[in-house]
What does this fold into?
Amino acid sequence: MKKILFSLTLTLPLASQVYTPPSGGSSSRPSGGGNDTVVRSKPQPGPSNNKTFGNELPFYNPAGETISWNGSTWAASDNRFFEARFQKYLNEPEESSEEAKKYRATIEEILAMMSPHRKGGPVFRDAVALLPRASSYPGDARLCDSLSNAIYTAMLAQKDVRGTKNLITAMEKEKKRVIGEADWKAKTDRDIVVGDSQAVGGGSGGGNGKNKGGNNGEATQTGRGVNSLDYLNKVKRIAEIEALKKGHQLKTEIKTELAKMQYQALMVQFFLQRRFEHVVMASRFYNQIWSDGDGTLYLDDKSDLDKMFTESLGVSPTVSTLDSLANEAMHDVNKGVEAFIFLVEQDELESASKRLSESYMIGEFMPSINTLARTKKRKVLEFVRESYALLNAIESKDFATATTQIKVLQSQAKDFDATKAQAAVATFSRASDMSIMMAKNHLAAGDVEKAREEIQKAMEVWPQNPKLAEFDRLVDAGGSMIRLRNDFDRLFAEKNYREVFKRQHELAPSINNDSDRQEKFRQVIENIGTIELAVKGSEELGRLGQHYAAWEKLKPIYDRFPDDPNLNQVMTQMQGKASEFTNALDRANSLEENGNIGSSLSWFYRARDLHPGSTMATDGIKRLVDRALNLN
Amino acid sequence: MARRASSGVNTQALLVGAIVLIIVLGGGYWFINQKPSGFDAPVLDAVSFRTNGRSLAGNKNQVTGILIDREIRASSQIVTLEVEQDGNPVHVPIIIPDGFTAGNLNQKDTYTFLIEFNTDGVPVALEVTQL
It folds into this structure.
């Protein structure tokens, strides 16, 4: 029953207050399997065909909280139009003006006057007289005027029907009179016999006639009795009157049905507009206008409206059906508002907002909705806003925001059920993460195309996945690796080993899995490490004033790496402080090369005299002594 | 009036006598302190030797200095004298050939060697005296 109510009541907020026959196919009802996470707030276009009144009905799917209408599907709880309207309602003050109070009092008075339970019966004329007063209230949207006009039209039709019935009665009398005359003529008319002046019986056909051949007296002569033109004319007249009577009877029935149809159309319109009080009023007036007990609704057999009634109720819809549905809707709305007030008091804002949302959808124009205090409504306003933000986040696949919104809603409402939202976030984020992981693997394997496909999938599932940024950084790093490897090669080509050493931590990752470059890199790092160690050691000796020792410590390193700029610089600095010693060694070496052994030995001794611990001098002396003594 | 006769020391004679005395004493001091070469050979120009010893090949010289090092091999050795020339030390290595009899050569002692330069420009000891 509720499903039917929703179907009916959800239609007009999406359209307008004036019913407009929908167009489009009627075969696109939702499957009923609700998708918990993907919510469409925009209608899906469907095939368009122009159907007449009553052939299209919105369909509310409570499982999926979707509404299908005119071949399109909306999310009932996530429709921008409804969202805006509902939030506007939550911010509106309650209707507590004098005018509103008078209006509601008038409606209640009309309903009371037309109630079948009223003592003395319904007061039709007085109730109709109140309709213009109710119509003067803006919130009524002049619907009471429409009802008043429909009643007037129906009354005129009724009056016309009564006139026609009087006419039919008169015609019936005339027919009976003609029949009587015809019967009399047939009964009394006699054939005329020559010489027989005795008239038998009377009659309008002339009493001078005589039954020519028989004793029964029936006229057989032409122009007499049933053979007379006068008799035939009477029979014809009877047939004409009968035909006219049948025609008028038919007209009466048609007029009645047309008047009912027009009136019922207005009732259905009220129902679809969720003006349930008007439906009840119209129903009660209907029973006073047409007391024949025939309340069958004139609906197209193939229409959705007719199907809805017959499939749900199992019987043909009647005015009473509309009346009962309207009463049930009003009851549901009132109960929903009561539940809302209780739930707000319990801080169960999710349930409260749902109950109010449902009640509002059904009974937007109901007094219980319109008189609900704004202070109570605003308690759920924040929750509703955050709820829509969550829905929007999920719809736009912004799962990071959705996660935040879930936490916010959990903190706001203790009854907030985050299961569906969390499941959606978990499912989609995991799928996206998985694709990103696959993309990374493909990228590591050098399969760029597959990596691109996986990233595409990840982006479709969760466009704002933070791990996409990580992946971007990884790709950027891959580009950096190539640049660093090029730098490494260039520095080697330039023999700028010092720069390689300086950027060793930056360059090292770029030559992973490259044995040739790694070997080069290893040598550079080791050699410059050796140089640096020697330089530090010599600098320490220099600080102790042992400049010759400092120089000698660096000399073999310098001989190995004469191109190292740092070492060159240090050696140049030390050269000045150890010049006497280095001069002695240089001369010794030079003379040794020339075979001038005595002089060379003299200089080696001089060098050792300057730096007694000199290994170079000692080695030179030993070498030259051996040579001088011809031991080599 | 009569001229007073001179009775003082003759200063000119005293000055000459002092000069002669100084010369005699100085010469005596030089004589006493002069190192005895003991060899009839010119003193080695150590700086020239250090510059190019091979150019002295075949020359005989005497050289005096402090023995600072001995490099002994199987049957021969090289000793090194530190000779001071022009205030700078110059080291002169001298081959002590096999069969050279010179007694004990001790480091830090001063010796005078009669040497002859071989073709490698290395002095070879011919004789030695300890001072």
Residues 578-632 of chain A form one domain. The interface with chain B takes residues 594-599, 601-603, 605-606, 609, 621-622, 625-629, 631 of chain A (CB under 8 Å). Residues 440 and 451 of chain A are 7 Å apart (CA to CA). The longest strand of chain A covers residues 66-69.
